[in-house]
Amino acid sequence: MKDELFLRGENVPMTKEAVRALVLSKLELHRASHLIDVGAGTGSVSIEAALQFPSLQVTAIERNPAALRLLDENRQRFACGNIDILPGEAPMAITGKADAVFMGGKRRASDGAD
């Protein structure tokens, strides 16, 4: 999917098209039933995975309120009913098991990282 298709926002990270293509290939989602996307940002990885594999359940975890809004808008824009958005931080926000996990996003020391 082209990057331009996604709604974007200032200071909300997005995994770029070339990286998404590689990541989705390496995750081997054709064998998976549940993907967890940690630090989902705009939702580009979650959305592309959900569209490529309609039977895949996707959990998108994000802590940034602005990113959560964009993530939900993008989920609606692409009509991805198989994506659950979970506000919070990993690992606390993660419940259940997954066949695949993608850890995206970035965190700076100024964001409270240790």
Automatic annotation (TrEMBL):
Keyword set, alphabetical order: Cobalamin biosynthesis, Methyltransferase, S-adenosyl-L-methionine, Transferase
Root EC class: transferase
EC number(s) per entry: 2.1.1.-
Domain of life the protein comes from: Bacteria
Biological process according to GO: cobalamin biosynthetic process; methylation
Alphabetical list of InterPro entries matching this protein: Cbl_synth_MTase_CbiT, Cobalamin_biosynth_MTase, SAM-dependent_MTases_sf, Small_mtfrase_dom
Coiled coil region boundaries: none
Tagged with keyword S-adenosyl-L-methionine: yes
Pathway: Cofactor biosynthesis; adenosylcobalamin biosynthesis
One Pfam family hit: MTS
One function term, GO molecular function aspect: protein methyltransferase activity
SUPFAM superfamilies in the record: S-adenosyl-L-methionine-dependent methyltransferases
Methyltransferase small domain residues: 21-100
Protein name: Cobalt-precorrin-6Y C(15)-methyltransferase
Organism annotation: Salmonella enterica I
Gene this chain is encoded by: cbiT
